[in-house]
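Course assignment 3, question 2. Fill in each field.
Student: A.L.
Task: Predict the tertiary structure for the chain below.
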Amino acid sequence: METPDYQPDNRFDEDQYTIEWSDIENAEMDYENYLNDIENFFREDTETEIPEESLY
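Answer field:
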């Protein structure tokens, strides 16, 4: 199937989506917030979990 309004001159701007190694090296991780997110995920999961006995 052909696209009538296709314009081959529009190229993908690779620089817009490129991550430089220096960006990764200089990034500071917020470990406290990261751990809180993980704990909250599992806490919510166990609170909403259906007991296995009620599945049968």
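Instructor remarks: Helices lie at 21-25, 31-47. The chain is about 40% helix and 0% strand.
Grade: pending
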